[in-house]
Specification:
Elements: E1 2-5, E2 15-18, E3 21-24, H1 30-39, E4 45-47, H2 55-62, H3 67-82, H4 117-120, H5 133-154, E5 158-160, H6 182-193, E6 199-203, H7 210-216, E7 223-229, E8 252-257, H8 263-279, E9 284-289, H9 306-317, E10 323-327, H10 333-349
Parallel strand pairs: 1-4, 1-5, 5-10, 6-7, 6-9, 7-8, 9-10
Antiparallel strand pairs: 2-3
Helix pairs in contact: 1-10, 5-6, 8-9, 9-10
The structure holds zinc ion.
Zinc ion binds next to loops.
């Protein structure tokens, strides 16, 4: 299986506010660097940094994200630096969020205060905007889009090492280390090439892909299926009763699993997901692939072992559908490369 990355995604390096402390974000460039260095001698690993970002990419991103939000992501760091609010090496972090207010109908208007904007366009404090965040997020989305085009033209499965990840951000809010929803951009790319094809998005990150669910909750295509930790971040979504609405009714499947879930239990849930993918008649599978389910991951929620990733690869290969994996989470940097390799081996060995 071909593995794609983009060296431009490595520039993004930011901070997060976690347990009352400002830390360097767990989602760091070393994640992708460790996967590439582990795989490059044994697999076909391609740097896509020469692919230019063009109007077509922007139009695909704008199908999923509000223009004002994208303008904010691309300009806020420079504005804060020029107003002497932060140093050039620091990250923009929000302070005041939009919270549900009984007296306000819908989403409030965009604030005029430069200081208020980061909270208007985010839902948490784990997605600092640093000097290179926009360019890396754009390169990550470009990688997802390019991979979707290649999936369509070759009908061969591939793995895109997207970072920053994407599944937590919705139309206008960054969060959970995510700025542009890469898997949504991959979907839009594929959907534009083949509007009639039914596409399934399978989210195997430890955390519920609240952003992806929000983007596609009312549509029939794609079908969104997620296996994730029950009562974990992002806390307010991912319940089994969230099944889609309107045209999307029945096309959203959440399978929350308890803390301490082991490989055997995970495979039962994965088989339920696979049945759903078959039942909706999917012709392509886009996988939001997280490795923060790993037993040694600092998240410490699930107990998935390396051999389980291999088995996941085999189960997905047996679907017999062109499959694109986009990287989401996974923070045990030292073993991330081996885990990606295990998944690929399982996929290729079946
Ligand atoms: Zn995650």
């Amino acid at each position: 299986m071909k593995v794609l990355y983009d060296t431009r995604t490595l520039a993004h390096d930011t901070h997060e506010f976690l347990i009352s402390r400002l830390n360097r974000a767990l989602e760091c460039p070393e994640r992708v660097m460790s996967i590439v260095s582990h795989l490059e001698n044994t697999h076909q690993v391609v740097d896509c940094a020469k692919i230019e970002t063009d109007e077509e990419l922007f139009s695909l991103i704008e199908l999923n994200h509000d223009k004002g939000y994208l303008e904010h992501l691309s300009t806020v760091h420079e504005k804060w630096v020029s107003e002497n609010l932060i140093a050039k090496t620091a990250s923009v972090l929000p302070e005041c969020f939009v919270a549900p207010t009984p007296s306000v109908d819908g989403y409030p208007p965009r604030p005029v205060d430069l200081f208020a904007l980061p909270g208007y366009y985010a839902f948490d404090m784990s997605s600092g905007i640093a000097a290179d965040t926009w360019n890396s997020a754009l390169a990550s989305a470009s990688l997802a889009s390019h991979a979707a085009k290649e999936l369509y033209s070759t009908q061969s499965s591939l793995f895109a090492l997207t970072r920053p990840p994407g599944h937590h951000c919705d139309g206008r809010r960054a969060g959970g280390y995510c700025y542009i929803n890469n898997i949504a951009v991959a979907f839009s790319t594929l959907h534009k090439l083949n509007p009639k094809a039914k596409i399934a998005i399978l989210d195997l990150d430890l955390h519920h892909g609240n952003g992806t669910q929000a983007l596609f909750y009312t549509v029939e295509n794609p079908c969104y299926i997620s296996l994730h930790g029950e009562n974990e971040f992002p806390y307010y979504t991912g319940f089994a009763h969230e099944t889609g609405s309107g045209q999307g009714q029945g096309h959203n499947l959440n399978i929350p699993l308890p803390k301490g879930t082991v490989g055997e239990e995970y495979m039962v849930a994965l088989n339920t997901a696979v049945e759903k993918i078959k039942n909706v008649g999917a012709e392509y599978v886009l996988v939001s692939m997280g490795f923060d389910t790993f037993e040694k991951d600092p998240m410490q929620v699930f107990l998935i072992r390396r051999e389980d990733y291999k088995q996941m690869g085999t189960v997905l290969k047996n679907l017999g559908l062109p499959t694109l994996f986009c990287l989401e989470g996974g923070y045990c940097v030292e073993e991330l490369g081996q885990n990606v390799e295990a998944l690929i081996q399982g996929f290729e060995s079946s």
